[in-house]
Design goal:
The chain is mainly alpha-helical. The protein has helices spanning 2-31, 67-91, 97-127, 137-156, 163-168, 173-177; strands at 36-45, 50-59. The protein has a two-stranded antiparallel ribbon with strand order 1-2. A hairpin with a 4-residue loop joins strand 1 and strand 2.
Length: 183
């Protein structure tokens, strides 16, 4: 049950992290003197063409931001949002494993976005390779889903004993409590 609770909370928190990430892009653009707006995007997911909505901070009034501004913005936007959620994660008590797991999953998702967004212009500029695959919603949202599932599983793992130690003791404490005493 803890797994589902952590994953559910992480999924509910994801739009908050995503919106914070895009607002941080606006902050960075503004700090660097580039006017920008927040746009709702409409991606098409996979061969089914299902719409997936997202947010995107885009410069306005210029065809594109200068390369150094773009690189700084792509790295800093999600990193600053991750930092904010990380501070929130630090403030949540260690006994709140569901909340901590959901927050940590979203922090790692934002770090994942920082890596993707930073890699995109660098690959295109220095490797002279089209990096549009990094823009696919399957990669972006699929990667986030994998991160959230893995962190939720880790957060729901019983504390204190490794799987090998639990097996040596005859299972988990819950299964041991259900056994009848030896005659």
């Amino acid at each position: 049950m803890r797994f589902l609770g952590t994953l559910g909370l992480a999924l509910l928190l994801f739009p908050v992290g995503l919106a914070t990430h895009e607002v941080m892009h606006l902050v960075v653009y503004s700090a660097l003197g580039v006017p920008a707006v927040l746009v709702v995007t409409d991606w098409r997911l996979g061969s089914l063409g299902l719409p997936v909505f997202g947010l995107h901070a885009a410069p306005v009034g210029v065809p594109s931001a200068p390369f150094d501004v773009l690189v700084a913005n792509n790295g800093l936007g999600p990193s600053l949002a991750a930092l904010l959620l990380f501070v929130l994660w630090l403030s949540v008590g260690p006994r709140s494993r569901v909340a901590r797991g959901a927050l940590l999953g979203n922090v790692l998702a934002l770090v994942f976005f920082a890596g993707l967004e930073l890699a995109y212009p660098l690959i295109e500029r220095f490797a002279n390779v089209q990096a549009d695959v990094l823009l696919l919603p399957e990669l972006n949202y699929g990667g986030v889903l994998v991160i959230l599932v893995l962190v939720s599983a880790a957060a729901s793992w019983p504390r204190g004993a490794s799987p090998r130690q639990r097996a040596a003791r005859g299972g988990s404490p819950a299964s041991a409590a259900g056994r009848l005493p030896a005659p």
